[in-house]
Specification:
258 residues, alpha+beta, three-stranded antiparallel beta sheet, 9 helices, 18% strand
């Protein structure tokens, strides 16, 4: 563990750092950073720059996958947000965003699979729709209003967010406040906010728009096509929702306990 923070009622009640890490040390969010991309797509939609029901090819152009035109036209932004693009996660490099790596497996919306490549291309969707790259748009619409620091750094095909633990906690407070920060409604699209943290499809009920959800009847996990019965984290409050990344990058939000 490098950093560990608990906040209650908007205040830090426990903050510890280990192994040479400090409050000012940046660290990767890994896949927990997917939730920032989800938030930014909501901001772009509230500014009428895109709709999550648009086909992805509207923003990436035709031929961004190896699918037929008919197969590709079924893939929408919402399918990437909910991990139901239908593209094959069993390719040699599931992080790859080249068209040659994005191969048809099933119709969009009919198969849940945790697949990084289609997710990462949401960054290009944001840039195409807004005219700003992901870092510039995030700085303008999220970091400046909340005082968060950090940035997305390209690592191979991935864009990985790095920040301090306190910046991650600020994002948690923003989500706990339903998109409001210090009296200012950063996310005014309340429908999108709610959709982010509700089951986005019926295949994996514990998955919203790149957020993981507790307290559902069943769940799936990355790399397996198995539906497990019960709650994702049985010992945690049922209303908890989470940004989860590899090697224990966790942001857990429990509205009932504030």
């Amino acid at each position: 563990t490098k950093g560990f923070i608990i906040l209650k009622d908007g205040k830090i009640v426990l903050e510890k750092y280990f192994n040479g890490h400090t409050p000012n040390s940046p660290w990767q969010w890994a896949s927990a950073g997917k939730t920032i991309t989800s938030f930014m797509l909501g901001i772009a939609q509230q500014e009428n720059l895109l709709s999550i029901f648009d086909t992805t090819s509207t923003y990436l152009g035709q031929g961004w996958t190896s699918c037929t035109t008919a197969q590709e036209e079924k893939i929408r932004i919402i399918d990437q947000l909910s991990m139901t693009s239908g593209l094959d996660d069993g390719v040699p490099d599931p992080h790859c965003t080249l068209d040659s790596c994005l191969v048809y497996k099933a119709n969009a919306g009919t198969r849940w699979a945790y697949h990084n490549g289609p997710y990462t291309l949401l960054d290009s969707v944001i840039q195409s729709a807004t005219g700003f790259n992901l870092n510039a748009y995030t700085t303008q619409k999220l970091k400046n209003p909340t005082g968060m620091t950090g940035s997305f750094i390209p690592l191979g095909f991935n864009n990985v967010f790095y920040s301090t633990a306190r910046s991650m906690a600020r994002f948690g407070l923003l989500m706990l406040g339903k998109g409001k920060w210090n009296g200012v409604q950063v996310m005014t699209d309340t429908n999108y906010y709610q959709q982010m943290i509700e089951s986005s499809q019926t295949l994996n009920k514990s998955y919203g728009y790149l957020w993981w959800l507790n307290g559902k009847a069943s769940f799936m996990v990355p790399s397996l096509q198995v539906v497990f019965p019960g709650s994702l984290i049985p010992d945690a409050p049922s209303d908890m929702f989470s940004a989860l990344g590899k090697d224990g990058q966790l942001l857990n939000i429990v509205p009932s306990l504030n």
